[in-house]
Amino acid sequence: MLWYIARRIIYLIPTLLIVSIIAFVVIQLPPGDFLASLISKAEETVDQAQVDALRERYGLDEPIYVQYWKWISGIITKGDFGRSFEWNKDVSDLIWERLGLTVVISLLTLAFIWIVAIPIGIYSAVKKYTIGDYVVTVIGFIGLAIPNFLLALVLMYIAFRYFGQSVGGLFSPEYIVAEWSLDRVLDLLSHLWLPVIILGTAGTAALIRVMRANLLDELSKLYVDAARARGLSELKLLFKYPVRVALNPLVSAVAWVFPALVSGSAITSIVLNLQTTGPLLYRSLQAQDMYLAGSLILLVSVLTIIGTLVSDILLAWIDPRIQLQ
Amino acid sequence: MQPTHTKLDHVDDTAKIDNQTLLDVKDLKTHFFTDEGVVKAVDGVNLSLKRGETLCVVGESGCGKSVTARSILRIVPSPGEIVSGEINFQQRDGEVIDLAGMNPKGREIRKIRGGEVSMIFQEPMSSLSPVHTIGSQIMEAILLHLPVSRQEARKRAVSMLDLVGIPRPSEQLDAYSFELSGGMRQRAMIAIALACEPQLLIADEPTTALDVTTQANILDLIRDLQQDSGMSVLFITHDLGVVAEIADDVVVMYLGRDVESGDVDSIFHDAKHPYTRALLQSIPRYDSRENRRLYSIKGTVPHPFGRPNGCPFHPRCDDFIADRCDSIDPPRHSIKGEHSVRCLLYSAADEAPSNKDVPS
């Protein structure tokens, strides 16, 4: 088991290297660079000599592989992710807090999805084709169909209009730039519920369907009848056998739920004004702020790979049929 | 359609279940209420099983054998329901109870399941949980029905695995089903079924999914265990070779009802019903000199919604009597002793076509 994990971590290195190259190249592919997009937005005309000077200073006139090498060797040797042109700050100063918040929100959302979806999915499968099942199914489809950002706008409006609560962002205004303290953590927690619900809605709806389908498959299996024929009560039977087996595919779903939450919720995060990585990545790509964008994509990839590894290990742990070789 | 009753030659169904009888199923009807219509999977089955004996239920696929077995344990899958009939079962304490009248999710039937009546299924591949050890499933049955501690249950589980001939039983207790071969899985299923010494073992085609050598081993095992414990066995099969080997009594089923029943000798040597005779003719014989094609019953089992009027077998019957077999539902007719048949060839003299069954 330990050897398996170690080997998976070793495999991680070439994967990340390839991802970083692809990310870097893709960011550079559109014509122009950061300075070009800066100039196009600038109101007064920019002196060409000044531009050239800047270009040299940022190393933008060098070939792409030289730029890549500088960036990646900085990360490996000094943990230096380069400098964000747009923010005029080191990338590492920008991303760590946001990455931390993103991971917290993602984990909470994942927990929310599971806690809500699994019991509803079980109910829906056991009470197949009853009114309760239909109600849950309809709500589930609505949850799937409404875009998260729209739901965010509606809920923000309701919260503001009827409860007088400022709901955007993760902190109250006075805590946004404050140092970490107990009060700031409490403030964060009081703001987290809304984004967690909004980000979790579509995932919950999808997971209810998955859980229902998985469980329906298992409920008709012969081992369920065999356990019933042994004299087990219906409730014990349900949780010991079919639910237990139906959960296995959900664990492998961790692998894709996690990166989707980290990178895929950019628009919702922008609407909700969340200090997560999604909006930062979005802006850096627009501005061709390549070191920031590249670093974010690299970190999202790391999270994805870690998510996959965690789900593989969990799956091997709960399902004896899977052998780690 | 109601069976046409006659005063003469009609087997007396009202007899109380006697001391020697363990299970007595009377006119059991289990129907499935689907959106397309009602499927009468079991439509008036009678069978009776004595203590320590083996009753074989035979018939083609789709004739209601498995549903009959599941009805006894009340594990008919939805939308199936027992609509009428009795399943009288004599408990260990001598009390006779009607399983058909019980709540299928209730406490009483759960005490019967696994404790007094156990069942093994057709596919040992899928009747064990894929994510639990063999031991946990045997111990579950033991702990449900016997007042023992976990350690005692574990000990008993090991001895059960030993009893059914699984090598290295204390190691195999912690094995998962996917680590065992098909034959070993069926042995494990038998160990689970017999862990609480049931009075009745229902075996629903337990050897169908196994290869021939393993089949013989499993049959021998069931027979040996039966001799040691004195339990009764309700054995469901479509393999007449198996029937000849293990049965005391036989019930032949066709389209959800018993068409002929009797002791194994009467069925094999004095079969009355054309269906039984046709089944017997369909057995390949190695000593047959003539190079003939193997006999096969014409046609197939009708679609569940297209149930023929009168005798359900008449469209495939070689002895079909026009205007009678397609309109009269044949009553049970006693031949000799417990040998009885539902066929108009034998009760023809007492029967007049009744108009109400003639399709308009």
Instruction: State the CATH superfamily name of the largest domain in chain A.
Output: MetI-like
- Average pLDDT of chain B, rounded to a whole number, is 86
Shape of chain B: globular
Oligomeric state of the chains present here: heterodimer
The structural domain count of chain A equals 2
Order of helices and strands of chain B: EEEHEEHEHHHHEHEHEEHHEEH
- Placed side by side, the strands forming the largest sheet of chain A appear as 1-2
Distance between the termini of chain B: 14 Å
Helix content class of chain A: over 70%
Low-pLDDT stretches of chain B are: 1-15, 351-360
Name the largest protein-protein interface in this structure: A-B, 23 and 32 residues
DSSP summary: helix tally of chain B: 11
CATH class of the largest domain in chain A: Mainly Alpha
Output mean pLDDT of chain A.
Answer: 83
Radius of gyration of chain A, CA atoms, in whole angstroms: 24 Å
Number of helices, counting only DSSP H or I runs of 4 residues or more of chain A: 15
In total, the number of domains of chain B comes to 2
Shape by Cα distribution of chain A: globular
Largest β-sheet summary of chain B: 8 strands, mixed
Largest sheet of chain A: 2 strands, antiparallel
Report what the structure shows.
The complex is a heterodimer of chains A (325) and B (360). In chain A, a hairpin with a 4-residue loop joins strand 1 (83-84) and strand 2 (89-90). By secondary structure, chain A is an all-alpha fold. Chain A has 15 helices and 2 strands. The mean pLDDT of chain A is 83. The N and C termini of chain A lie close together (8 Å). By secondary structure, chain B is an alpha/beta fold. Chain B folds into 2 domains: 1-9 and 22-105 and 200-355, 3-Layer(aba) Sandwich (Rossmann fold); 117-197, no CATH class. Chain B has helices at residues 65-73, 107-112, 134-145, 150-163, 169-172, 182-194, 212-229, 240-246, 264-269, 274-281, 344-347, and strands spanning 21-34, 37-50, 54-58, 80-90, 96-98, 117-120, 200-204, 232-237, 249-254, 257-263, 333-336, 339-341. An 8-stranded mixed sheet of chain B has the order 6-7-8-3-9-10-12-11, sandwiched between helices. A 4-stranded antiparallel sheet of chain B has the order 2-1-4-5, covered by helices on one side. In chain B, a hairpin with a 2-residue loop joins strand 9 and strand 10 (257-263). Chain B is globular and about 65 Å long. Chain B starts with 20 loop residues before the first strand and ends in a 13-residue tail after the last helix. The model of chain B is unreliable at 1-15 and 351-360 (pLDDT under 50). The interface between A and B is medium-sized, with 23 and 32 residues.
